[in-house]
Amino acid sequence: MAANINWRTINIDALDPESAYNFDLTTLTPAVQPVSSSEVQTLSGQVRQLLRGGNAEGALRGALENAPYGADEQGKAMHLSVVTEVLGQIRQAEMTPLLQRMYQAEGGSELCDTLMKYLYKGMGQGTPTSNSTPKNLTPQATGFSQVGGRHFGGGEGGGQAMSVFLSWHEKLVEMVGPGSIVRVMSDRRTV
Amino acid sequence: MAAPEVHHLFHAPIADHSFSADRATLAVARDTTVELYHRTPSGSGPGPTFRLQDELRGHDKTITGVDIAPRSGRIVTSSQDRNAYVWEPSASGEWKPTLVLLRINRAATCVRWSPSEAKFAVGSGARTIAVCYFEADNDWWVSKHIKKPLRSTVTSVAWHPNSVLLAAGSTDGHARVFSSFIKGTDERPEASAWGERLPFNTVCGEYLNPTAGWVHDVAFSPSGAALAFCAHDSSVTIVYPSGPEQPPQAVISVSTQLLPFTSILWSSETELVCAGYDCGVYRFAGSADGWQLSGTLEKDERGSASRPGLEQREESALNMFRSMDLKGRAGGGGSSGGVDDTKLKTVHQNSISTLRAYETDGEGRVARISTGGVDGRVVVWKL
Hints:
heterodimer; A: 191 residues; mainly alpha; Serine Threonine Protein Phosphatase 5, Tetratricopeptide repeat; two-stranded antiparallel sheet; elongated; B: 383 residues; mainly beta; Methylamine Dehydrogenase, Chain H; 3% helix
């Protein structure tokens, strides 16, 4: 029977009690409230209502303040599409004053960091207009997603959303500096 | 403010540096050797210069930490070859290394003498801190391990003034405070807000910042009553403990717009100095009520030629030809009005790896600090 075992494929980490493999890494990360998909859906509804009512700033603020860190992939994708929608509705000229108001308010730098996370997530998605998760994303154990191959040619919609993200990114970095980008990479609460 | 004193030692990264107590000797970790520089009164330049005097050879992988004990003058080094050596001067003026039994199976990442100089702590990639002390019976340095609850590489260690409490920053995002009490070496410490009874490996505190980015450096305040750490999310977090086994009185996290800091130092109870990937040195001021970024040590004037230490151009011929090739003009002088944009506006031309107290004034405030960077410079700054 020993002859049948392929020694090369044995996961030796699983046999070592000291190994990180046998340790639940989530105990090291900040506690996040689990959020169900239906809650995300309700929130999306509220944000869209604000947006329809012409209060884009309130909609953005609400979406960022209640970012569902504890949701599953589907819930997170749903929230991303809402944030993308709100961002697309705000005109270029309004971006900077809006960001300034947001940044200077109480807890504003936190909100800006969250917005930066959504910008990067959105840009990483390739075609953010479609609600389904693209298939070329391979979720990594680290919580980050790696893009297998970008498809910028994903139709007019994709390119347009990308230009929205890029102009937001430019305005946001002007305000919050590279520190915020580093926080997107190091934060364990992913969006 | 006086201009910083810049010593450009070589063109290689400086992982760690340490001055002797009289500030005449400078130990610099360069690749697999430690170079000892001696201060000579004045060369051609305006200030004192440092001349290479000796080399400590023995490690066969990159050296990650070097520390000179201020009173005994002993030098301890740690390296990626999983070893640490204690170097002592012999009668003939040569440095004699003693191997320390670290018993770790990954690289040693940092090393610091305790203020009592009877012990030192070595952080490692093996999720272990080796607390080393001298065993007179066997005539060598042995170590005791702090293992739990470390879950990842230890990036930095820092001592409390009582030489028993030890702070460690780790890539699992936590800054922790341990007891490193060793019977026979240490005196029983006084009870403090960190704990009352402190047997070895007691965890006195475990702190996390909101994003849980990995911790680059930790430091106790001069009195030992507060702990500060800087993490890879560009933040600085200050913890004020309230009492043993109790939640801290205040945990203040300051997120900055800058790139992350790799080194942190308390210049007084109410001021911190930080440096890192942003290549500059920044000051923070505050108390248990709140902290904020209060300024930088860099000069504000941009692109002016008055900054000392930068006049001598590195590889100027190479720069000139590169500039002619890329921009079609001779470096520096050219159509754009003589502004050389290939240089950073900071004194260090690459990220800063360590920040050290250089001189303290009568009241225990740090008056001057030194920084060592990836650009091979050691700079002495006046606060």
